[in-house]
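To close the chapter, one final illustration. This time we ask the reader to focus less on the individual chains and more on the assembly as a whole: which components sit near each other, and how the overall shape emerges from the parts.
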Amino acid sequence: MVIEKAILAVVTTNNTKITGGAPIFICESKNELQTICANLEAITDGIAHALSEELYIVVKH
Amino acid sequence: MNEYTYAIVFGIAVGTLSRILMLKTDYRQYPTYLHGKIIHVSLGFIAAALGAIAVPALLEQEYTAVTLLTVAATQFRDVRNMERNTLTEIDQFELVPRGKSYIEGIAISFESRNYLCIFTAFISALLYIHFILPIAILGSILCILIAMKLMSGSTIKDIAEIVPIPLKFEGAGLYVDNIYIMNIGVEERREEILKYGMGFLILPKNRDIVQTLANLGQRQAMLHDVSVSLGIFRDSGTPALTPLIKRDLVDGRVGMFILPQTRDIDLAIKIIGSVPVLESAIRLPSESKPYNGKSDE
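The assembled structure is written out below.
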C-alpha cells in the first residue's frame, strides 16, 4: 500500500494537547506559529492546515 | 501508370489534407510545433494511402489486399499508445496536470482521426473512379466537413451554466458558495488566495450532467485548461496554492477555485465554457431502462 498523505509536522502553542508521533514544534505565540508554519510549508512542500486556533499540522498531499 | 493511378493519388491527397485540417495546434499546445506535426501528417499520409489503395484492390477483386487494413488498425492503436505515453510523461512536469482522463481523450482522438482519414481517402478514390473529377472533389469536400463535424464534441457551456462567485474563508476553511474547498492554515496564504483567487459555480443543466461533472478526470481537465489559458499563480513548492474543484454532494453543483494570472472574469467564463466534455466522463443514466420505467426485455 502506498501512503499518499502524511503528517510531516505538528505545530502548536498548547503543549498539553500533543504527544509523540510526528515532529512537534511548540511555539510561544500565534505569530511565531504562523511564521513556523509558513517556513515548514515552504521547506517540506506540504500544506499547513489549521485544526484549531492553537493546533496546526503540515501535511504532504 | 494504370487506370487507377490518378484515383489513388487523388485519394491520398484528399486524405492527407483532411488530416492536416484536423491537426490544429491551439491553446493546449499539443502537438507541439513542427516535429509533432510532422509525425502526425506522415501517419495521416500512410492512413490516406491505405484508404485510397483499398478501392482498386476491391475493384480488381483482390480481396486479400483488404486484410492490409487490419495492419493499419494495429498501427493506429500504437499511435494511441504513443500519445498516451508521451503525455503521461510530460504531465508530471505540469504545474496543473492534465489528468489521465484528458490524456486518454486526446490519445483516442488521435487514433480516431487516422480512421477518419482512411474513410475520406477511400470515398474520394471511389468517387474519382466511378464519376468525374468535379463530383469527386465535391464528395471529398463533403467528407472532410463530416470528418470535422465528427471530431468536435460538446463543451462545458453546452451542458452547464457558469456563475462567478467570490471566495470566502470561514476560519481556515476556504469556500466557494457553500462548497468546502480546503483548509489553509497560514494567514499569508489566505491573503494571497483572497487577492489572486477566483471562484466559479458550475451548475449542471440536468441529471445526466451531474454525473459527468462528478467525474474527477473531467474536473481536472477543466482546471488544466483554465490554468493554461489564464496563467497560474503558483510554483513548485507552494502546494497550498493549488487550484481545486469540489462538488456539492446534495445537488451536484461544482465549485471551482482557480488562481489565474489574468484576472478577467468574462474571459475565464468563456474558457471554462470551452473545455471539451471528455468522452470517458459522459454518463447517461436517463437512458437506462429502469430509469424510464421500462423493463429490461
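Chain A has one domain: 6-60. Residues 6-60 of chain A form one domain. With these observations in hand, you are ready for the problems at the end of the chapter.
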